[in-house]
User: Which sequence fits this backbone?
């Protein structure tokens, strides 16, 4: 069973790498935005007293670029690939084999977590070398937030793929979810500037908890227990729902 799962994951990895658009939006775009905006907007490189003397590019902006990569992967690349499998009859043929839905979803989850690790490592590495962005000051806290947040977002993408009837619907639904979730994470309006009610709503969204956890860990602070609990809850609920609602046809 383990050998079969390994082969399935290897196939999914090769298929992912054959999609240049996915690689661009998940890996190249966030790194490019970090370099372009971080090097051209002077305010991003100035010490900010409200951030404890850190520069905006050091934690908040870098954290948002990591979040952007994973959200794009979870709500666009992953569900689109699975729904396309369904439309082309790949899943129908697979349903006649011993492969179970949970195995396919787990393989997709594994491949996309690996892609998010690569994208995050490149974002941190390039940011550190070019812009002097410090590496995570709380590496274990960063790893915990990264794993929980990635699994929560990818499980949400699997759920979307499980219920979407076709590729047009999944693309539209993914975009409809992505932009408000990025807003609630603080992508365009930092959470510190949000009204109290909006910030409290953000605390209970997967992107709000994930984004703040990344920023905290990058800045050397422990993530808030509430945000870790929210991420774990979203990962569990979305993952179980995806496995239960998944349709081969």
Assistant:
């Amino acid at each position: 069973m383990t050998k079969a799962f390994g082969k399935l994951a290897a196939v999914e990895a090769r298929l992912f790498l054959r999609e240049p658009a996915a690689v661009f939006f998940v890996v190249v775009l966030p790194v490019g935005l970090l370099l372009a905006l971080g090097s051209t907007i002077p305010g991003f490189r100035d010490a900010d007293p409200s951030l404890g003397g850190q520069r905006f590019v050091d934690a908040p902006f870098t954290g948002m670029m990591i979040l952007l990569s994973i959200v794009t992967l979870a709500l666009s690349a992953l569900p689109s690939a699975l729904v396309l499998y369904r439309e082309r009859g790949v899943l129908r043929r697979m349903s006649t084999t011993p492969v179970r839905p949970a195995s396919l979803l787990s393989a997709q989850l594994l491949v996309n977590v690996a892609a998010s690790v690569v994208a995050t490592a490149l974002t941190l590495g390039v940011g550190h070398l070019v812009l002097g962005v410090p590496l995570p000051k709380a590496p274990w806290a960063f790893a915990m937030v990264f794993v929980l947040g990635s699994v929560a977002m990818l499980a949400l993408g699997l759920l979307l793929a499980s219920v979407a009837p076709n590729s047009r619907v999944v693309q539209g639904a993914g975009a409809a979810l992505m932009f408000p979730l990025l807003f609630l994470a603080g992508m365009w309006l930092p959470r510190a500037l949000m009204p109290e009610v909006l910030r409290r709503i953000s605390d209970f969204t997967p992107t709000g908890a994930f984004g703040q956890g990344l920023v905290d860990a990058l800045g050397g602070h422990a993530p808030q227990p509430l945000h870790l609990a929210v991420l774990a809850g979203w990962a569990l609920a979305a993952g179980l729902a995806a496995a239960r609602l998944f349709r081969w046809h």
DSSP finds ten helices and no strands in the chain. The radius of gyration is 18 Å. The chain has one domain: 2-245. Residues 2-245 form one domain.
